Amino acid sequence: MEDGHLRVAVIGAGWAGSVAAATLAEAGLTATVFEAAPIAGGRARRVEKEGRAFDNGQHLLLGAYRRTLSWIDRLHSPTAYHRQPLEVVSAPAMTPALRMRAPARLPAPWHLAWALLTMDGPSLGERVTAIARVAGLLATVPPAEQTVADWLAHVPMSMRRQVLDPLCIGALNTPPEAASARVFAEVLRRAFFDDARDADFVIPALDLSSLLPDAALTEVVRRGGTVRLATPVLSIHRAPERGIAVETRAGRETFSAVLIATAPQHVPRLLSTLDGEPSLDPVRDTLAGLAFEAIATVHFDLPFIGGLHPERDRIRLLDGQPGQWLFLHALPGGRVRASVVLSALDGAPLAAGGEALCAAVRRQLAKSWRLPEPLWQQCIIEKRATYACTPRQHARLCGLSPLLRPTPYRPIAFAGDWTEPSLPATLEAAVLSGERAARQLLDCLHR
Ligand SMILES: Cc1cc2nc3c(=O)[nH]c(=O)nc-3n(C[C@H](O)[C@H](O)[C@H](O)COP(=O)(O)OP(=O)(O)OC[C@H]3O[C@@H](n4cnc5c(N)ncnc54)[C@H](O)[C@@H]3O)c2cc1C
């Protein structure tokens, strides 16, 4: 069959599915993208409500997100994001205060050593001990079953509380007591031990759907593909002749291959109608049993925020009671959008709901800055923001990798953050997975 006649269905237009579809389209295949929601982007998307556009959740990218940044750079002008060398400054009300900055001119890992040695906060002795201990820990791969809290047991508590724990919660969306040491070690290696620019903070300047998914899907359409938003796939089936039939409310359509790029909890239902595939039973069982962590994002539009300037002070570390990070964005007319992230949210704060979280975050910010009455506020709680990055779940997802490869008999590939478990559930994991799944499908179809 000519490449031009190979039709592939991509289910899900999150970051993984959008990148996968664009990769397939660039390789000459005809991609049809099915997305259940009216807007592409999945868990990193634009929300349009009450005449305003905002993101479902404030996202932070790192310089180490090399594939993600390469796609964004290719699809946009450089104004799509702000990039700044690693700088962590705590809110004034946080005690002890933390201020840490990596100089742009030192190579890795000396930029980090410099940042830690010159930071405010823990004593010099604690900082030196922490550098030596973490460097020693990173010399080997942590045991698969170890948690971050156990792994860091001999690192001074002040450095854990002020630097490493917030990093773990921010990167893995899982508390250190439950988080996988192996995955956290990989994050530290990628962010701090290769190129100094890997530790840069990259803050989107566009909404999350525009930043990558919309632009990648435009490329798909330009190359002859189709994008069907607000079109959930109800089931997939083996086609009577060859290929896979995809069922939507409009009926069944047959494709040469299917690439499933949904969040993990949506995969078991899609696979449930695929007869004669016992090799996928472990995939169904593992994904049906996954545990998740929530993230809430509280957005305020303010006439100003006393003591901060959105173009200078883009990000501040908070004390975690309840918000962990504050991001500032300049809005037209001198107004400011303040977005506060509450990661690994559970228990009473999660149960309290959006109104109570907005009020709690306002009280928290008002301890550090002069906070006028908000012009608008919104809290979005994503209950299944990411799978919990625990040692057990990490091991189970790693075990699925060999089962996810498409074969000529079963031309089904899988993408999504959960398919790249060496990294936590992040945009970079999603993008890497989309590229990898598209390549696997191309290999399989060309065999
Ligand atoms: C609030 C929040 C904050 C986060 N912060 C960060 C951060 O700071 N940095 C970072 O790197 N990562 C962050 N993440 C994680 C990151 O957003 C995810 O890892 C990434 O977006 C996952 O992308 P994906 O394409 O794998 O899956 P998804 O985004 O879940 O995309 C799957 C898509 O499939 C669609 N779909 C599902 N079922 C069907 C069906 N039957 N038919 C058709 N379509 C279907 C869904 O609607 C969705 O659009 C955050 C996540 C959240 C929720």
User: Which structural class do the helices and strands define?
Assistant: alpha+beta
Query: Strand portion, in percent?
Result: 15-25%
Care to count the β-strands? 20
Under CATH, the homologous superfamily of the largest domain reads FAD/NAD(P)-binding domain
Number of helices: 15
Percent of residues in helices comes to 25-40%
**Hetero groups:** flavin-adenine dinucleotide
CATH class value of the largest domain: Alpha Beta
Biggest sheet: strand arrangement: 10-2-1-14-20
- Biggest sheet, open or closed, and with what strands and sense? 5 strands, parallel
Shape: globular
Domains (count) = 3
Mean pLDDT: 94
Instruction: Return residue spans where pLDDT drops below 50 for at least 5 consecutive residues.
Output: none
CATH topology of the largest domain: FAD/NAD(P)-binding domain
Distance between the termini: 11 Å
Specify Rg, calculated over alpha carbons. Answer: 22 Å
**CATH second-level architecture of the largest domain:** 3-Layer(bba) Sandwich
